Structures are given as structure tokens and as C-alpha cells.
Amino acid sequence: METFIQQIINGLVLGSMYALVALGYTMVYGIINLINFAHGEVLMVGALTSWTVVTLLAGAGLPGWLLLLIALLAAMVVCAALNFAIEKIAYRPLRNAPRLAPLITAMGVSLLLQTLAMILWKPNYKPYPILLPHQPIDVFGAVINTTQIMILVVTAVALATLMYIVNRTRLGRAMRATAENPRVAALMGVRPDLVISATFVIGAMLAALAGVMWAANYGSVHHSMGFLPGLKAFTAAVFGGIGNLPGAMLGGVLLGLIESLGAGYIGTLTGGVLGSHYQDIFAFVVLILVLTLRPQGLLGERVADRA
To answer: Half-sphere exposure of residue 233, counting CA atoms within 13 Å on the CB side?
Structure first.
């Protein structure tokens, strides 16, 4: 029973980070029908930026929580500026091009960011300092630490804030109007280019948040760390329903739980043939099943009907 509870905790923590990244995918797709495959690399840039800030301020005598907060803010600013530039330089000129062109561009941007990060930060793995108290807290025989609690709380707050922005603010109404028909929205006073840039910026800030939490939880950063989480977050977005914000949240959490429970029990189920290091297969098995049995996702694909 303790193993089951431990895997549930691990799955919720992992799924929370997947959900944050999946929201960036689904927001962009919902508005301009683009899969931004460079989104995982934005997570990587956020994690490496926060590592740089933490390393530079390590001798300043600041408490760990304040150091983590400063690093997080710096990562969010850098990632927001990066995604704004990516949208303006790489995607905006191709907005009316055939759908394959921006998709290939997104893959190219992903490889470019990985290469630049390898040049700037070098290809070696870098240990991420432990900034919060790391004493385990007992939960019905399982354990959870302060960093994991912080991840769950911050994710819940970030998701609630995003839902409020999208559903209750002028920016959110402009996003929904642009998703439905950008030309009509422009006639009504909405600036589609500004709305799309704002969507990329918000997605980048969520990815930076996920990147810093990923680094703090797993304790290391490197230039290729964003590829697999980005791919799994895309799977989570498809799982829940691409273009659907609640679907991205649900898909991320469920995917984290499936992966964590699978990693915990795959050895028992296969008689020791497969170990926990095969946990990555579960995300792609889920993707294959969803695309085969329910391609619109669990909550349905929510893409506006354009006139």
C-alpha cells in the first residue's frame, strides 16, 4: 500500500509539471492551429537560466526560498522574451503558409535552441542546488518533501490564475475571439498579432515555471533536458483534447499518474524483464491508444469553427 501511495504522489508531482507545459501547447494550437515543438526547449532555457542565477547568487547569503524565487522570476522573463522573439521571427511570417511549413520551422527552432544552449552552457550535466528543506514528510507510509509540496501548490495556483485570465479578463475574451475568427476580431477592435504574442508569452512563463520545478525536483539541468518532457506534454495535450485547457490539465495529471504507477509496477507485471527505467514507453503507448481510439482526446478537441 505504501508503494501505491508513493507512486500516486510521484505521479501527481510529475503530472503537474506536464500539465503546465501542455497548456502552452494547447493555447497556441487553439488560437493559430500550430504545434509549437520548440516549447520543450523553452522549458530547458528556463531551467538553465535559473541555474545560472542560483550559481551567481550562491554566495550572497540569501535564504533558499528567496534565491529560488529570484531564479524563477529571471527564468520567466528570459523565456517570455525568447518565445516572443520566436513567434515574431519564425512563426508570424508563416502564419498564412501551408500547415507543414510552420511545423518544420518549429522543429528547426527546437534544434537551434538546443544547439545554442549547448554552446552557452556546455553539454555536461549540472547539479541543481537544493534550496528548500529536504526532510521527508510521512504520508501514510509514503514520503513527500517540501519541493514536491511547492510544485503541487504552485501548479494549482498557476492553473487557477490561467483559467481566470482566459475566462474572466479582456485578454481572455480577446484570445477566444481571435481563436474563432481573427479578421472579425480585428474589426471589433482586437489586435490579433498582440493577442497571439501574449499567448506565446503566457505559455513561455508556464514552461519556465515547469522548468525550474523540474530542475529543483530532479536536481540536475542540461541542454537536452526539454525534449522528452516537451514530447510527453504534447502527448498530455492530445490525451486531454488539444485546444482544450481543462483537457490539457487533466491529460497532464493522468499521464503523470500512468507513468509513475507503470514505473512502480512494471517490474512485477513483467516478471523482472522490464524495470522502472522503461517508464517512458507509457506516454507513447497512451498517445497511440488515444490517436487510435479517441483522436479528439478525453474532453474533446476544442478548436473554434472559423467562418
So the answer is: 34
Q: Measure CA 276 to chain center.
A: 23
pLDDT at 306 over 60: no
Say how far apart CA 261 and CA 17 lie, in whole Å. Answer: 16
In a domain, 292, yes or no: no
Which residue's C-alpha cell is 500539465?
19
Q: Return the C-alpha torsion angle 242, 244, 247, 248, nearest 10.
A: 70
CA dihedral over 32, 38, 39, 40, signed as positive or negative:
positive
Cell matching residue 136: 521527508
Residue 214 lies in a domain: yes
Q: According to the model, what pLDDT value does residue 98 have?
A: 87
Q: In this structure, is residue 251 part of a structural domain?
A: no
pLDDT of residue 9: 92
Counting the structural domains of the chain, the total is 1
Structural domain of residue 114, as residue ranges?
Answer: 19-226
CA atoms within 13 A on the CB side of 66: 6
| pLDDT value at 305 more than 60 | no
* Arithmetic mean of pLDDT over the chain: 89
Neighbouring residues of 2: CB distance < 8 A, sequence distance ≥ 6 = 140, 141, 142
Helix or strand or coil: residue 54? helix
DSSP one-letter string for 18-47: HHHHHHHHHHHHHHH----TTHHHHHHHHH
| Pair 242, 301: CB distance under 8 Å | yes
- 58's grid cell: 550562491
Instruction: State yes or no: pLDDT of 94 exceeds 70.
Output: yes
Residue 132 burial (C-beta neighbours within 10 Å; 0-12, 13-18, 19+) = middle
Contacts of 123 (CB under 8 A, 6+ apart): 222, 223
Q: How far is it, in rounded angstroms, from Cα 166 to Cα 158?
A: 12
